[in-house]
Amino acid sequence: MTGRNTKVTMRRHPAAMVSEDDFAVEETDLPRPGDGQALVKVLYLSLDPYMRPMMDPVRSYVPHLNPGDVMPGATIAEVIESNEPELPQGTVVACSLGWQTHGVVTKDVVRVIDQNAGPVSAALSVLGMTGATAHYGLLELAKPTPDETVVVTAASGAVGGVVGQIAKIKGCRVVGIAGGAEKCRYVVDELGFDACIDYKSPDFEKQLAAATPDYVDVLFENVGGPVLDAVLGRINDHARISLCGNISDYNADEPYGLRGLRHLLMHRVTVHSFVIAEHRDYWPTAIAELSGWLAEGKIKYQEDIAEGLDSAPKAFIAMLTGGNFGKQLVNVGA
Amino acid sequence: MTGRNTKVTMRRHPAAMVSEDDFAVEETDLPRPGDGQALVKVLYLSLDPYMRPMMDPVRSYVPHLNPGDVMPGATIAEVIESNEPELPQGTVVACSLGWQTHGVVTKDVVRVIDQNAGPVSAALSVLGMTGATAHYGLLELAKPTPDETVVVTAASGAVGGVVGQIAKIKGCRVVGIAGGAEKCRYVVDELGFDACIDYKSPDFEKQLAAATPDYVDVLFENVGGPVLDAVLGRINDHARISLCGNISDYNADEPYGLRGLRHLLMHRVTVHSFVIAEHRDYWPTAIAELSGWLAEGKIKYQEDIAEGLDSAPKAFIAMLTGGNFGKQLVNVGA
């Protein structure tokens, strides 16, 4: 097998708002698969908000990136050359090769994808990290009971959309928060939330109050910032918050000053922060249940697919600023 | 029994910083005990930070106070006239009569105090709500393991002092935060904490980092504000925060803007907010264990006793601004 591997690296730590200049595209020779290894060609790359804080040189749940490092990320790839009998040529696998076109894997670091179970890209969204995040954060941590009110921020986003649909399956009242009328329409009309509030509306807080007459029992939080403060003002006694993301701060010069600590205390709220990569043994449970709901038509999802690895930086930046619509993928194999 | 009942009421909602003008002293006739009731004379009143947010007309865990209401609070009282055989004259009870000199109780709303078990006032501090709060918030919610680092804010305060001593009994490294060199000396020399940092020091954050070389596994938080942000900057992976108080905000014009949400997420922190009044069935467990430790000399406590009910507003204000030293009581029976 001859050819070249193209990869996108972090050229420098972003100042605050990440820009395309913070990335570099490099080419190298294709790696060679050794014994028990397979060379794969990436089909799809998943772009996710967690990648942004990894670009900052601070203490975090994973070692931060250094200039020159390949950008990380989950991928779907196809075996094109193999020295591993369990991964014959043509096998499609989920793996974590990051922002590049090729890589070498062993059977221990991949999950083989059933190509008859629907589009292989679903393994990067509702049947992958996205779905596991939604399922774990909502059902294992927040544990909503029927008739409770669940609020989901970034409701039209990849995780948020799945969270809200699971909450509906569980009999909850589900209120989404999203940016713009089009996303809000999608969340209600397509995903079946009971309501969705546009946080850009001048009377956002008033609309939120009207949509949560019994206050908020569960918050699945992806955003942070003033939207979180607004929801804290509606929080109910013994509410549970699953803190999954803080995307509003990722590109900010200064972190937002959250004013609602008082509400946590007054209403005896529990906050669970989590990262799904630490709960790998939970993934099969989540994905099995989500697969069933998907087959029954109870869960819908949307993908926003950028074409070609070169488009990854631009698509990543758009995702961080709300410019995408659904799970952001890159069609690397295009 | 003739005589008068003196009570302190909330005259108006405080603007921000509570002042003595927000209180009024009133006199009424003594109430008369009916069948199954006893008239009691208050000996000690407990002053606690939770009373301050109750003075604000906002949604909270208890109905807020209205102008003219008697200030609430836990009390120790002695039966002076009784129509209840189980509460003969001379019985000393813990009850919740608030800021007044007399009241009428039934046996269902009091806890009889063993007058041979030490000073009766301890039932308002280490062997009462204070001790139960410390025990529950630390051991039931945060669950520190030996060798973990536990940070306690308001470490010389009534709750904080007990929290740190329990954590030492459990084999933890315990770092207090308090205001001023005298309080810090007391926390280390008398209460046995491993270190105590003065949050008023210009190099407070540097001292905190030096005192928490392995970061912070458990935070027992009574204060909020910039001190909380500083501790969040040292928080460890999978840390647990027991959110017990937010005293720095209680008298503020504007709530503090907490900037450290990012650290909660990055380090997968769990935050438990609680109010001990909701866990009454836990009190006997806590108080039994604390009584044992007290008898063995493993727990020390300090009381700051103001003389006479008239002094309650002034003592309350001092407590909210760090002017007290130890559990703030009022000797009402003086």
UniProtKB/TrEMBL annotation, chains A, B:
Cite the Pfam families for this sequence.
ADH_N_2 (PF16884), ADH_zinc_N (PF00107)
- Sorted alphabetically, which SMART domains does this protein's record hold? PKS_ER
| Record keyword Kinase present | no
Recorded hits in InterPro entries, A to Z, give: ADH-like_C, ADH_N_2, ER, GroES-like_sf, MDR_fam, NAD(P)-bd_dom_sf
- What's the superkingdom here? Bacteria
Q: Which GO terms describe its molecular function?
A: oxidoreductase activity, acting on the CH-CH group of donors, NAD or NADP as acceptor
Mind listing the UniProt keywords for this protein, alphabetically?
A: Oxidoreductase
Q: Where are the transmembrane segments?
A: none
* Domain Enoyl reductase (ER) residue range list: 19-330
Protein name according to UniProt: Putative oxidoreductase
Origin species: Rhodococcus wratislaviensis NBRC 100605
